[in-house]
């Protein structure tokens, strides 16, 4: 973890950093029996403790279960969330109500939030101090807005921005409230955002999902969404990361100027634009790269040479 922090500080950027952690696996249903699932997942991690001895690749051990997948916040906001054909393939139906009418939920009455807190409490009660703890997918205001309203929501951003602002604010306040709960209850040295095994950050950093920003013009993002993203990352003492997986380079200027944005994680389509991120971001903004067909590891190492970067994968043999 100290080496990872040096990478973020730019004092160890000459040497590539490799990250490939492992999540604990449990057989019990984490939603109905979080204590049993936690016991099993921690035992699984204990049996893989040897991974921590890897001197070439950072292999953090992680406890993480994301109830309802990317639709966790949707569930809290009243959307119908269901499994489609197979376990863990979570989907959500669009709301029937119009944009602009979303009402703040009663968090205390939310089944999804109750289940997530029970899982966190089971982790705390275990007394485990080594594993990192990954949150559910809290996503971002824009992602959740589009989960709730679909393509029609995009049109409202342009045709009736005040209605969109209203609902984005309701969504944002829920996301912020959940982040604050985790910040208050999970030890800072263990708290990590989503996908903690492959996006591990030094303590004190947050994360949001920027997937759907590819659908917006630079002006719409800068006016309606960037202030919300900045607000969320600013909750954390040291800012945080945005996850990208599509074509997002039109927002480079906004992200370069966002002081709270300390890291950009790219995979798939976004990884193919790695050279644009290297050239367009600040020198202190760390790049997390998932090598893939669009961006092989050898090419990623060449493009990021000399700047803070984390390669998501095991260090290849010499």
Secondary structure elements and their pairing?
Elements: H1 2-9, E1 17-19, E2 22-23, H2 34-46, E3 61-64, H3 72-76, E4 81-83, E5 90-92, H4 111-126, E6 132-134, H5 141-149, H6 151-159, H7 161-185, E7 191-192, E8 206-209, H8 218-233, E9 240-244, H9 252-256, E10 261-266, H10 274-280, E11 286-289, H11 297-303, E12 309-312
Parallel strand pairs: 1-12, 2-3, 3-6, 6-7, 8-9, 9-10, 10-11, 11-12
Antiparallel strand pairs: 4-5
Fold and architecture overview:
By secondary structure, the protein is an alpha/beta fold. The chain has 11 helices and 12 strands. Strand 2 (22-23), helix 2 (34-46) and strand 3 (61-64) form a beta-alpha-beta unit. Helix 7 (161-185) runs parallel beside helix 8 (218-233). The longest helix is centred in the middle third of the chain and has 25 residues, at 161-185.
